[in-house]
Each structure stands twice: as C-alpha cells, then as structure tokens.
C-alpha cells in the first residue's frame, strides 16, 4: 500500500488530521488498534474551545455539534460556601465554549471520513514505524493475521501517550518533561437532569468537585480522590454523599440519580518537545498530556493537527518546507502555555492535604482575586476559551 500521510491512531488528532488533509486533496490512511465501536464509546472529556468549534463547523463536521452541543458563556467557581461567575463571553469580547462529548466528535469524524471514502483500518495489531529518518518512511502492521506495509511520505503519530510513535524517536533525541500531581479524579455519568446552566468548579476543604453536563438527562460529575484510590471503594452512596458535601449550598442542591459509569484517573503533565523527527510528526496525547482541570487535552490535539495539515498543504501545493520545519516550535509554545494554565487551575482548585493552613490561605486568596479582579478574571477567561493559534 502507498499513501501520502500514514496516520497512526483514530482519536481526535488522527481523524481530524485525515479530514483536514482530505480537504486539501492530500491522501492518508488511518490505522487504529481498537474497534470502531470502542473508540466511539469511550468516555473522555467534553469541553470544546471556541477555535475547535469553529474549525469543526468550518470544515463540515459540526452539524450535530451545533444541534446537540451546549454553548456556555461562563463558568462558576465555588469556594468558602459561595459561588462566583466568570463571565467568559463578556471578558473575551464574545467568545464561548461548547460542551459536547469527545466520543461524539469521534463519531462525527469517523462518519464524515468514511462518507468521503477514507481508508481507516480498525483492529490493527503490532504497528511498527520504519525508516522514519528517510524520505520514504513505512508502517508495518497486522490486520486479520496478515502482515501489511504502508509506504508514505510522512507518518503522523496520533496514537496517544502509550502508542508506538513517540517511542520510535531515539530516547537521546527526545526532550521530555514530566510532572505528577498528588490528585486523582473520580468521574461519573449519572442519569439526572442538569443542576446548573454552567459548569461549577468547586474548591471544598474535603477536596475539589466539578459539575459538568452531557445532555438534558445525563450529567458528568468529578470528585478529587487520592490517585491510588480504587473504584471498588466508592459505592454510589459514598460518591453522592461526597459530591453533595462539596457542591451543595444552603439554597441549591445537586441533582442525583442512577450512576451509569464510574472510573478513576490520575493527573499528570507531560511534554515531548521533540514533536518531529525525520519524517515522523507527533500530535495530541502522543506528545503532551495535561491535567483535565483546564479542559485543554482535546483542544491541544486539534490545534496541533491544524498546524500540521497547513504545513503539509504548503509542502505539497507550494513546495515550501518552512512550516514543517517549525512545527515543533509553533506547537510547543502553545502547549507550554496550556500546561501552565492547566497546572495553575489544578493547584488553585484542588485541596492539597500536604499543604499548611498558610498555603491553603494563599490558595483561597487566589480564588478571591480571580473572582473579584476584572483583569485576573479576564486572564482566566481568555485561556479557558482558548488562546489564539499564532504562527
Ligand atoms: N496502533 C494503532 N492505534 C493506536 C495504538 C497502536 N499501537 N496505540 C494507541 N492507538 C490509538 C488509540 O486506541 C486511540 O484511539 O490511538 C488513538 C489515540 O487517541 P486519543 O488517546 O484520543 O488521543 P488524541 O487523538 O491525541 O486526542 C487527545 O484529548 O481529552 C483528551 O486525552 C484526551 O483522548 C484525548 C485527547
Ligand atoms: C467534562 O465535561 O468532561 C469536563 C469539563 C471540564 C473539565 C474537564 C472535563 O475541566
């Protein structure tokens, strides 16, 4: 087999890249080791920045997002038993975010790609990258027990943190940074009506809680837990007791209902600044992980492939390599700012039980400042709706 761009991974990064390349008349093949059903059913994040929404809409994959997504003009921060609204719309000159689950974005992208005749191979095994330092890199894999090879001009590694792409870059060439946070998130999906028109990020002395939504009858809630916690220790009753304690106010109670899904994830930051090596280009979780408090993971993946597809367009249609050469530099600058924002939101909102009362006092003062100073709130709002993609 031969294609122009061999894409490993059918997450938001890989699928969107394939879609954007197709719109430029550039051919790609996508390889995914899970089934279509699995990628379309995995519960992940759900906040789309203004720029992500515009890109999806502007490239013809935003129809369902417009119908079913929920546009939010603000978020609420809760601490010391009081709730404070950050009016993102006013603070950013009219911008907003849209709550629309990541697996719904996946469904829309897969449907669109298949409708346009894309080659997506699901359930592939044993994906290997070869000759990435040459002008003719190759991907080998097995499909239904048969060994296959794709020869391409470029390989896009969109295969998440654990995929083989990043590891194909010699360790000595990779510049990586890691940080782990002493926090985990227990996430649930519950059958209940929405409790609030906007997301609530609550700093409570027992720990952080986040109230998000999915639809008029399914809600998404998160609780800060110890990262080593096991989900078996969290009965539905225990989850509701803790959620009510951390978000309820005198005149406001969280809507609860049957829990239909629950899991625990740990929180970390990771950046591989070497986003390009030879003819291999990394995008999305394959090259950076952010803690979910800033809601940036999916949006960073989409921003990477926006830059990459433009760079490839310049290469194929204008014989220009400048943007391809600058790919790592352009993306990592923005990724570092998103890391900074995500780490800041994480530290401001979570309860660190190792901290002294003084340090907790500073944390509450930070929340007080952000919710009372227009310029501090503006900075949060600008980053939450998404910094511009500059290059
Ligand atoms: N071969 C083929 N595909 C692979 C392999 C492999 N060896 N390893 C992983 N994959 C696939 C995964 O199954 C997954 O579908 O690569 C895909 C990577 O997708 P994501 O993990 O969703 O990563 P990305 O597309 O970068 O999206 C960014 O935003 O909200 C965040 O972390 C969240 O998924 C999210 C991300
Ligand atoms: C979600 O709805 O899944 C969500 C919302 C906001 C976040 C993280 C996750 O910061």
UniProtKB/TrEMBL annotation:
<keyword id="KW-0274">FAD</keyword>
<dbReference type="InterPro" id="IPR002938">
    <property type="entry name" value="FAD-bd"/>
</dbReference>
<dbReference type="InterPro" id="IPR050641">
    <property type="entry name" value="RIFMO-like"/>
</dbReference>
<dbReference type="GO" id="GO:0071949">
    <property type="term" value="F:FAD binding"/>
</dbReference>
<protein>
    <submittedName>
        <fullName>4-hydroxybenzoate 3-monooxygenase</fullName>
        <ecNumber>1.14.13.2</ecNumber>
    </submittedName>
</protein>
<dbReference type="InterPro" id="IPR036188">
    <property type="entry name" value="FAD/NAD-bd_sf"/>
</dbReference>
<feature type="domain" description="FAD-binding">
    <location>
        <begin position="2"/>
        <end position="342"/>
    </location>
</feature>
<dbReference type="GO" id="GO:0043639">
    <property type="term" value="P:benzoate catabolic process"/>
</dbReference>
<dbReference type="InterPro" id="IPR012733">
    <property type="entry name" value="HB_mOase"/>
</dbReference>
<keyword id="KW-0503">Monooxygenase</keyword>
<keyword id="KW-0560">Oxidoreductase</keyword>
<dbReference type="GO" id="GO:0018659">
    <property type="term" value="F:4-hydroxybenzoate 3-monooxygenase activity"/>
</dbReference>
<dbReference type="Pfam" id="PF01494">
    <property type="entry name" value="FAD_binding_3"/>
</dbReference>
<keyword id="KW-0285">Flavoprotein</keyword>
């Amino acid at each position: 087999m031969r294609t122009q761009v061999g894409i490993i991974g059918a997450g938001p990064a890989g699928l969107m890249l394939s879609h954007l390349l197709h719109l430029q008349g550039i051919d790609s093949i996508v390889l995914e080791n899970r089934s279509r059903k699995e990628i379309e059913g995995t519960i992940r994040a759900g906040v789309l920045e203004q720029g992500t929404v515009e890109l999806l809409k502007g490239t013809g994959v935003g129809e369902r997002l417009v119908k079913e997504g929920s546009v939010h003009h603000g978020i609420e921060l809760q601490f010391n038993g009081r709730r404070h609204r950050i009016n993102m719309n006013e603070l950013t000159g009219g911008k907003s975010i849209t709550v629309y689950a990541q697996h719904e974005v996946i469904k829309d992208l897969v449907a669109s790609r298949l409708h346009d005749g894309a080659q997506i191979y699901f359930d592939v095994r044993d994906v290997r990258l070869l000759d990435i330092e040459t002008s003719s890199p190759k991907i080998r894999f097995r499909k239904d027990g048969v060994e296959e090879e794709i020869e391409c001009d470029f390989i896009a590694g969109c295969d998440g943190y654990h995929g083989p792409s990043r590891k194909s870059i010699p360790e000595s060439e990779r510049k990586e940074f890691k940080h782990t946070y002493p926090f985990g998130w227990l996430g649930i999906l519950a059958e209940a009506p929405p409790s609030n028109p906007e997301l609530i990020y609550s700093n409570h002395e027992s720990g952080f809680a986040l109230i998000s939504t999915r639809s008029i009858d399914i809600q998404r809630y998160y609780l800060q837990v110890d990262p080593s916690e096991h989900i078996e220790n969290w009965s539905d009753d225990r989850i509701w007791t803790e959620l009510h304690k951390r978000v309820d106010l005198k005149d406001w109670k969280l809507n609860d209902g049957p829990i239909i899904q629950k899991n625990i994830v740990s929180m970390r930051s990771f950046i591989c600044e070497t986003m390009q090596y030879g003819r291999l280009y990394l995008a999305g979780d394959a090259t950076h992980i952010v803690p979910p408090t800033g809601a940036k993971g999916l949006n960073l993946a989409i921003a990477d492939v926006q830059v990459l597809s433009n760079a490839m367009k310049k290469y194929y249609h204008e014989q220009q390599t400048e943007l391809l050469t600058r790919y790592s530099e352009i993306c990592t600058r923005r990724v570092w700012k998103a890391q900074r924002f995500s780490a800041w939101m994480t530290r401001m909102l979570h309860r660190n039980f190792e901290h002294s009362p003084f340090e907790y006092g500073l944390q509450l003062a930070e929340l007080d400042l952000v919710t009372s100073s227009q310029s501090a709130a503006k900075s949060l709002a600008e980053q939450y709706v998404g910094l511009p993609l500059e290059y």
